[in-house]
Write a structure and sequence with these properties.
Radius of gyration: 24 Å
Distance between the termini: 42 Å
Bound molecules: flavin-adenine dinucleotide
Low-confidence stretches: none
Number of strands: 25
Mean pLDDT: 95
Largest sheet: 8 strands, mixed
Amino acid sequence: MEKIYDVAVIGMGPVGAVLTALLGTYQLDVITIEKDPNVFPLPRAAHIDHTGLRTIQEIGCLDKVLDKVIRNTRLDLLNANLELLARIPASQRSVSGLPTSVYFYQPDFDRILRDAATRFPSVTVRTNVCMTAIAQHLGQDLVTLNVVNESGADETIKARWVVGCDGARSPTRELCGITLSSLNFDEQWLVIDLKVDVEKYQLPADHVIEICDPKRPYLTTPISKDRQRFEFMLLDGEDHATMLKKETIVELLAKWIPDQAYTIDRAAVYTFHGVVADEWRKDRVLIAGDAAHQTPPFLGQGMCAGIRDAANLAWKLDRVIREKSSDAILDTYQSERAPHAIKVIEAAIRIGKVICELDSERAAQRDRLLRASDKGSQASLLFSLPLLEEGPLVRKGGGNLFVQPRLDGQYLDDIVGSRFLIVVKSEAALGRSAAWWQSEMDAYIAMAPQLQSPELERWFKQNPCEVVVVRPDRYVLGTADSLDTLTDEVKGLLTGKTVTA
Ligand SMILES: Cc1cc2nc3c(=O)[nH]c(=O)nc-3n(C[C@H](O)[C@H](O)[C@H](O)COP(=O)(O)OP(=O)(O)OC[C@H]3O[C@@H](n4cnc5c(N)ncnc54)[C@H](O)[C@@H]3O)c2cc1C
């Protein structure tokens, strides 16, 4: 009999690789297919925040990733004369106990993620395999994929669930007839990656600078110790071919590297979009990452948002596949992730609009306000990750990422594993539902006083409550004075049946 996988993941960019590895931690039977034989040889993403790093920690390759990164210190906005207009620090402590954000070289990073995903015995990874069609057989709880396999032959793959992590042009999204809505930002930018002596040319080695020059806005970001990226906005009427000419690139970079002592790894024109898919689930097919949303890269959040999709989806798929929850739980994937992704995209567009001002008078006014630390102008630059909005699995006090203290030198997430965490201030707050959380939900229950963590004590001071329930994706489900209150609110959806504790 032909094998039926629990999940087929289409695409092994960073989001597909992370999702595969997360599903592997749950020991699900997963097949991941990728049309290209090897990881994409050039970087796109260069920046990852602590939320992404925390998921990387969960799939067991944090040390390997951190080994090769540059810690981000800040984002500076400069005027055309390279004078500082505003500074957004990034060196503060993150709630995850990890660096707030770092720069990395994506081909190395992707290889680490692929290795992490491939090591799970229940995971099958097949590269050089291209998905060409999807058919849902709802009566049989089955999806079939037509693929062109490694030998160029047609083949069928069967799975209970399919997740399309197949990028901005997502064939999965197209084949399912899912439309995209625009958030009204479509600008063309020339992206140039260089191999260069970063120190010699005093390029920003540990931060991004965005140059708000109304004649041509541009930015530069580190990628690795000897690699730097420049991005220049295209102006009206400029065509790709001219912009990609060597002499154009030399001229654009002359202010920074006048002697042309660099190797161009890649130069390409991208349209920076703000778009979001109207549906993230069609019956047994879901989409994640760039397939579901795309952002202009001014905050370096596109891939980070995709990794957050994977973290949100993995534990829910696990519950559904093991028949612990009904598939209604999967509807919370879009209802939680889409508003969050949209808020992040809107913040990137807001910053993009500040940088992309081409009217010289309005740009001069912006510069004056920013230099005078005008509160309104500064506020348009502020960015902090939004909370998940309140919903069936995000209750009162929930929606934020929980703290991750180290306990006896070990990260809290590593102690808990990929499951629910309940922290109570006293045994009384456990009420009648603790046994249910332990037996049905395999939750990790901890008494705050016994953990002796100043960070947890601080958290409880800032979030007055007796109990906090943290989901496997590390987001707070909710807080309450008694665990029973939260249990009554979420038990029905978590188990697929409404039963009293
Ligand atoms: C210039 C630029 C800078 C950026 N900087 C950042 C940054 O600093 N930080 C950040 O977080 N994000 C950044 N981004 C965004 C980031 O690159 C994307 O969000 C991220 O790559 C999306 O990952 P993904 O896995 O969803 O899609 P992709 O990386 O596009 O992967 C999709 C995979 O699916 C495969 N595939 C497609 N079709 C099929 C098929 N039919 N069958 C099998 N496989 C298929 C493809 O080969 C590919 O490997 C940047 C983007 C750009 C363009």
